[in-house]
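Field log, afternoon session.

UNIT: design team B
ACTIVITY: writing a sequence onto a fixed backbone
BACKBONE:
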């Protein structure tokens, strides 16, 4: 009887240790999620501060981007309101608005490529650099946050840890991502002004000038000399052809040195006659 009690006591102690360790693991994971989200929240608030200055700078040079500027301002105010209403915590609605704001900012930075004066403005370049660095830190922090959420949610849903999670009200955390397919689409940017420009003609090469080709003509493989397919390849024996006869060249008469006293005809010796 005493042995059974000892065994039961050991089992209870083991379960208690396991429960305490599991509970502490949930607390650590939850605190890690909160800490990683605070880092993202700092960068999001910094983006809230940079966007108004960026909008005002762009407005002074690019009045035609009114719709884009109004969209960025509206999303910025909406995201800031959700952040204050939620106490700085992440929600699915705020995650969607923040992702829409990121896409609107990217669209704005691409649209200003058509304004050379704005691209050379010192204030705009500084704001663009800071905003780009902020977006990069937000993206890196979001990956770290989502990884922590994944590990925590796995513990909450797995057996037997889900029993302890249900007892102590450890609920699943929210990912900082977007599930709406329309939000995931890349911003559409029109390059109609560039496409309507006439194509620049390239300078002709020396070969094209020699052949009389036009600068815009495409290369034509048929215009190049083609090898006769019936001719034997180099190093191979083909069908023997009859040799062509060429008459021997007449020997050249060596020039005679000039003689004094006038012209002296050449002396041709006659062969001796046979008797």
């Amino acid at each position: 009887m005493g042995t059974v009690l000892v065994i039961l006591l050991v089992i209870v102690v083991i379960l208690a240790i396991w429960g305490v360790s599991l509970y502490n693991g949930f607390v650590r994971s939850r605190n890690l999620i909160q800490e990683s989200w605070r880092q993202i929240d700092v960068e999001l608030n910094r983006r809230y501060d940079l966007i108004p200055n960026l909008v005002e700078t762009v407005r002074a040079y690019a009045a035609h981007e009114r719709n884009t500027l109004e969209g960025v301002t509206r999303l910025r105010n909406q995201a800031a309101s959700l952040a204050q209403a939620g106490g700085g915590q992440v929600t699915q609605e705020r995650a969607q608005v923040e992702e829409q704001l990121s896409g609107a900012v990217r669209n704005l930075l691409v649209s200003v490529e058509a304004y050379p004066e704005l691209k050379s403005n010192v204030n705009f370049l500084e704001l663009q650099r800071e905003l780009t660095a902020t977006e990069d830190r937000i993206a890196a922090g979001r990956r770290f946050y989502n990884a922590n959420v994944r590990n925590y949610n796995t513990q909450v849903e797995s057996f037997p840890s889900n029993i302890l999670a249900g007892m102590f009200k450890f609920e699943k955390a929210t990912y900082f991502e977007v599930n709406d397919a329309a939000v995931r689409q890349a911003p559409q940017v029109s390059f109609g002004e560039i496409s309507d420009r006439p194509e620049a003609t390239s300078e002709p090469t020396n070969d094209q000038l020699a052949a009389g080709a036009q600068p815009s003509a495409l290369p034509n493989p048929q215009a190049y000399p083609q090898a006769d397919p019936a001719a034997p390849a180099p190093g191979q024996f083909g069908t023997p052809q009859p040799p062509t006869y060429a008459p021997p060249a007449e020997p050249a008469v060596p020039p005679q040195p000039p003689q004094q006293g006038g012209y002296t005809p050449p002396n041709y010796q006659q062969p001796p006659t046979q008797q």
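LOG NOTE: Confidence is low (pLDDT under 50) at residues 180-240.
NEXT ACTIVITY: expression trials, pending approval
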